[in-house]
Amino acid sequence: MLKYKRPIILFMVDGVEGLSHRDMTLIQEINNLALPMILCVNKVDLLDEKHQKLLVAKTKAMMDFAKYVHVFPISAKTKKGIKEIFTVLSNVKKEAEKRIDTSELNDIVGKEFISRPPRFPKNKVCKILYITQIDINAPTFIAFVNHKTRANFAFKRWLENTIRIHFGFMGTPLVIRFKERQDSRLEKRDEEKNEDQDEKIVTKKEAYGHRTKKKEAK
Fold this sequence. Notes:
This protein is α/β, with parallel strands linked by helices. It has two domains: 88 residues, Rossmann fold; 79 residues, K homology (KH) domain (GMP Synthetase, Chain A, domain 3), CATH 3.30.300.20. It contains six helices and six strands. The strands form two sheets. The chain has a three-stranded parallel sheet with strand order 1-2-3, sandwiched between helices. α5 links the parallel β5 and β6. α4 packs across α5. The chain is elongated, with a radius of gyration of 28 Å. The termini are far apart. The model has no long low-confidence stretch (mean pLDDT 86).
């Protein structure tokens, strides 16, 4: 039986012309598919070192929606960067297949939430109760939160940046999903509240039964 393997995309653009509108559309589609990608900027032999750096910087700026993509200058004519790209491919493959220990992940995210907290509208904080990686290639994470509706784009970006700062994942997109779950402390408080209510109901029933017996006795 044939087994599908997720490819690593080598996306090549003309270094002289730069990224076109069509290039950006295709890159966004690849990003939506969560496929690892390396952006190869060809024809750098036609540019001096200063303009090569400017080209790479400009290309990275245009890739703000996919900052994980490695921009790699090459020259098909002079073979510059051709050998090195295989090392980059190997590294990207390893990053895409990386799995993070759940305990370490929760420890890092918890500390970052205190030292470098994400911003939320007043009284609309989204708290991460637990996070775990459930898959590799593409690395997929599920974060259990107290209010899923409050997990906005900025919060997702903060979480992705936190994971990348501490664990890398160069060249590969991250899939982050949110699932709502009540805080265990709140669950315990609700259980205690329900128990108190049940006790009050039983007490009322017993009192009512006692009064009924008295009336029947009379």
